[in-house]
Every structure is written in structure tokens, then in C-alpha cells.
Amino acid sequence: MARRTVLSAGLGAGLGLAALGLAGCTPSAKTSGSGSGWKQFSGTTINFISENTAPSAAIAANSKPFEDLTGIKVNITQMALENLVQKVKLDMSGGTSQYHVVYADPYQVLAPLSQGLTDLNQFVNDKKYPPVEKGLADFIALDAAGRFESKSKLYALPYDCPTMIWMFRQDLFDKYKSKMQADLGFDPTPSGKITWEQYYQIADWFNKNAKADVPYGTGHQAKQHDSLQCDFSNVLWAYGADYFDVPDIGTVGSQNPGKSTLTTPQALDAAKFYDKLLKVAHPSSTTWDWDGLGNAFAAGQVAMCPNWHEYAATNEKSLPGKVGYSILPTGPKRSANNWGGTGIGINANAKGNEQGAAWLFVNWATSPATQVMTLKSAKGGGTPTRTSVYDMAEVKKAEKRPSDMPNMLTASAVLEAWKPENIGLRPKVATWNQLDTIVYTNLSKMIAGSQDPTTTMQAMASQFDKVNG
């Protein structure tokens, strides 16, 4: 299938064109160049607060083109997501706008703080501003990254779309494949055909048979942190369970998700398996978030792991040519790959020229040309949120080694992960920050052995229902 066909089919059916907000590209005027509207706020200074992400690192290192185009000075502050959430909350609740442009994580910022974000439709539809290049239809996951409860308002433009996939040491799988297959009785080649139970067996096999090459078979981002919830969710969904049973809760979201569904038989089975899996994982997994896991994999500590695909850029520096990528294993229901996309929006407290200048930055930072720049940047390596970028010849070429856009080496796995039957979407609800804490706090007790899987899921469900009334 052609790339555009894969993207449209993958995000279009079931989740996509209507739900994730992906449609065909509708060309319109370009945002590049020094045309009308770009200089109108020259001399303004704005502040952008972002999680420590690949696109923001690239833009921070390459913001001069924006300043030259607009005459606007942009200061970029990057930090851990949990710290960002607290700072944005304080800024908005205090009626201030220390940060004009906000990295609006759909679950931890957009849903609980949507009232503090500006509706971007006023800029998109105002002809005094440069138009969005190729139109809103060019964006991947516009609803999931940019809306809450209603499709009539747009709070953010898709900025990045990291997705959890299976990363593995291709060199070690090549070396041990025959022996592993003989011992385990199945072809261990990573793919969506491998089940989570087989993943466990492969990890255990590496632990017992390949210590000379790698300390442990698998590693996980199982620190008592948002990362633990992300890691577990892949298994939860794969087993056919979910946090709530509400249509479109992962895309447009809901203020009233109803009762938790975390005590279904499928959810209990998922918890039991995850508890078993962590028992054969690298023992430091309980101290790792996604960065810790990414660094451990790049350092050769584990043979495989589920992690955000944007760590490919790090892998290609530390383990050049030795890493392979696949969608995550399949559970009793499906393969489920956690989508972690985020948009950037504007603090509604920003005034006058700050609002307009912030919009120009949002427009520029999400433009196709800027996204290609972040792909190429030595300090970045983000993932395009534009269908048009995936169609570019230089981007297609980068899907094979040698690649000057290493994250594109994961393209085949990511495109497969984005198909509606494989994508995993967390519930976009206003209370998610509290619910997220409940998930990783209880899972930490389970992994530590102080709470069994059934009690863990019952506690989660009870606490969810209390928070949501």
C-alpha cells in the first residue's frame, strides 16, 4: 500500500478520519517564506514551555529561522512532564501568562485545563494571519491531540506523536534464533504474530542462555511514575480490557467517563500477566521511566523492550545497525501500542500581541518544513504529525539505513501501530492526572509484592469511581 493509503486506512477506519482527525490533504497557501502576516508582531517575546522531547530539543537548537521570519523572540523551557503540568496549572490558575505557548499533553494538560487554553479556530479562520500550510486536514490525530469533549473547539495543533513499539537487538536475535526456536518451539522473530506470553518466554530464554551478550532479556519503564501506567496499558488493552467503556473517550474525550471497567476478567488476567512479566525483567526496571529504559537499552543492558519509538535516534548512535523495530506483541484480543501524541496550544491568559505571536509560533513549529528540520536535527529526532511529510522523497529514503532521520527507521512499525486495530489510546478525561497516579501507585505495590494482582485492580477501580463520583 502507498504511504498515504496506509496512513488514511490506519487512522481513518474506526479511530481515524472522524476520531483521530486525519483526512486527505487539502492544499492551501504555504506558511513558509516572508509573506503577509509574519512580521506583524515583530519585537514581541514569547515563552514556550515543553516536556523534554525530541522536537522541542530540535526547535530550541534551531529557532533562528522563526526569529528571522517573524522578528519574534522565543524562549524555550523544557522539563519533565510532571513538573510541566504543575507549572502550567499554577500559571493558568493565577491568571498569569508566564508561558504563552504550552505543550498540551492531551491527558495531563488539555483535558483538565482546556478552559485555560485558547480556541485556535480564531486564528485559523482569520485572514490577517498566515494560513496553516496544507490546511488542518494534513494533520495526523487532530482530534486526539487537539480537542476535548467537542469538535467545535480546537485547543492545540498536533506537535509530536511518539508511539510505543517493540525495540529489540536484531543482532542478538539473528545470533540466537535457531537455538531459541529449537528450545521454545516457535519462531521468535519479533512481530505482531508473537504473543505476550511468547514475549515472556523469549525474555526468560535470554536470561538463562545469553548472559555473555546481554544481562537481561527484557526491560520496562516500571518506575512509580506515569511511565509505569504507559507500559502496563499496552498489556491491558492487548488482553481486551480498558479503563472505561465510553465511545471516543480516547479521542475527543469525556467529562463523565462513568464506572471503571478495571475488574473485568480480562483486566485481571492482564494484571496477573504483567506481574509475572516484571519478575523476569531487568531488576532496575522499577527505577526506570522511559528515559531510564531508553538509556539502558542503548547501553546493552536488555535484549528487548517496549518503548516510545523516538528512542530510535539514541539507538542508532549507541547501537548502529543492531536494532530492529516491530509493533508490540499480541494479547488474547490484539496488539495494542500506546499513542503518546501531544499538541501545542496557547495560554488563554496571554494578552494582545502575545496571543498573535504565540499563534505564529504554533503555526510555524507544526509546519511541514519545521517537522522535516526536527527529523534531521542532531539534537532532535521527532515524528511528523503531517501526512504530507511522510510523502516526501527524502523522508521515504530515510526509512532505510544509512539514514539522516533515524526515527524514520521505525516507520513500518509505527504505521502498523497506528492502524485502528492496533492503536492504544488512554482515556482523555479531566480527572486523568488523579487516575494516572492511582494506576501507577497500585501497580508499584503489586510489582513490589505487597499487593496481589486481583486486589490491585479492585483497588484501582474503587479509587477511580471515588474520584469520578
- What is the CATH architecture assignment of the largest domain? 3-Layer(aba) Sandwich
The CATH superfamily of the largest domain is identified as Periplasmic binding protein-like II
Number of helices: 21
Q: For the report, how would you describe the main beta sheet?
A: 5 strands, mixed
Task: Indicate the percent of residues in helices.
Answer: 40-55%
Distance between the termini: 47 Å
- What's the rounded overall pLDDT mean? 91
Percentage of residues in strands: 5-15%
Q: How many domains make up the 3D coordinates?
A: 2
Q: Compute the CA-based radius of gyration.
A: 22 Å
Q: How does the overall form come out from the CA principal axes?
A: globular
Widest β-sheet, arrangement of strands: 2-1-3-10-4
